[in-house]
């Protein structure tokens, strides 16, 4: 029974991936609306500096990290003992691995810039009446991008949790009070290596 569920899940994931890859123009977003919504910033493309636009697709790993976030949110929504009747949503943007693009996409999470959205009932059975607020952001990947987005998001008290930004600069809690990470800063890795 468990195996069947796993295969179904992999099939769904693959379909989502294909849909996603077909829609590769820049400024893309990937969303499902819930009662509480989490933002995501992932580097899916490289940046083309001369053309000042998003360039070619990056390796599959970035897409995997993004799908892992969506997978975790879906798992939480399916399990009534985690958040009971509250549905979680997500809204994900491509940073194109570039700090300025990250800053631009972070504007999508800022209350005065958010468009009012209607209930699309993406999580059937859950209550989807919206506050249309982003309660926190996952990502971005690079430290230079995290610095840009956390400065902006902290003005609106939106916490940010990066999964790969290891710069010591970001350890400054006074400068970056809303920045958190799931990886240790470089300082610890250096002392381990030494
Ligand atoms: C998200 O993408 C859809 C089409 O894929 C577009 O209609 C919508 O305006 C986009 N939203 C934002 C905030 O960019
Ligand atoms: C639901 O979440 C609880 C923990 O909150 C866990 O013990 C349980 O195994 C989960 N159920 C399913 C079906 O994943
Ligand atoms: C959750 O929703 C179900 C069905 O809508 C309802 O019967 C139940 O009482 C709700 N639980 C809570 C704690 O609100
Ligand atoms: C959904 O939630 C809102 C507030 O979060 C509440 O006012 C409304 O009654 C709920 N609707 C249902 C059908 O539970």
UniProtKB/TrEMBL annotation:
- Chief subcellular site? membrane
Write down the membrane topology.
Multi-pass membrane protein
Q: Which residues are in the Receptor ligand binding region domain?
A: 65-192
Report keywords, A-Z.
Glycoprotein, Membrane, Receptor, Signal, Transmembrane, Transmembrane helix
Gene3D superfamilies attached here? 3.40.50.2300
Q: Name one GO molecular function term.
A: G protein-coupled receptor activity
**According to its record, what are the GO cellular component terms?**
membrane
Cellular compartments annotated: Membrane
The UniProt entry, under Pfam families, shows:
ANF_receptor
Signal sequence segment: 1-26
Name of the protein: Metabotropic glutamate receptor 8
Q: Which organism is it from?
A: Holothuria leucospilota (Black long sea cucumber)
Q: What is the lineage of its organism?
A: Eukaryota, Metazoa, Echinodermata, Eleutherozoa, Echinozoa
């Amino acid at each position: 029974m468990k195996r069947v569920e796993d295969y179904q899940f992999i099939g769904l994931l693959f379909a989502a991936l294909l849909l996603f890859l077909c829609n590769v123009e820049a400024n893309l977003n990937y969303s499902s609306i819930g009662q509480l919504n989490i933002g995501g910033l992932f580097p899916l493309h490289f940046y083309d500096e001369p053309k000042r636009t998003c360039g070619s697709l990056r390796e599959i790993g970035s897409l995997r990290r993004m799908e892992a976030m969506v997978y975790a949110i879906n798992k939480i929504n399916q399990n009534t003992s985690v958040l009971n009747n509250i549905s979680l949503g997500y809204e994900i943007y491509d940073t194109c691995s570039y700090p300025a693009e990250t800053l631009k996409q972070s504007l999508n999470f800022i209350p005065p810039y958010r468009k009012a959205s209607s209930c699309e009932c993406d999580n059937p059975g859950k209550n989807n009446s919206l506050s249309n607020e982003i309660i926190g952001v996952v990502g971005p990947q690079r430290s230079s991008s995290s610095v840009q987005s956390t400065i902006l998001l902290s003005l609106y008290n939106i916490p940010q949790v990066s999964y790969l930004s290891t710069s010591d600069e970001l350890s400054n809690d006074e400068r970056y009070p809303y920045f958190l990470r799931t990886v240790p800063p470089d300082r610890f890795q250096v002392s381990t290596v030494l």
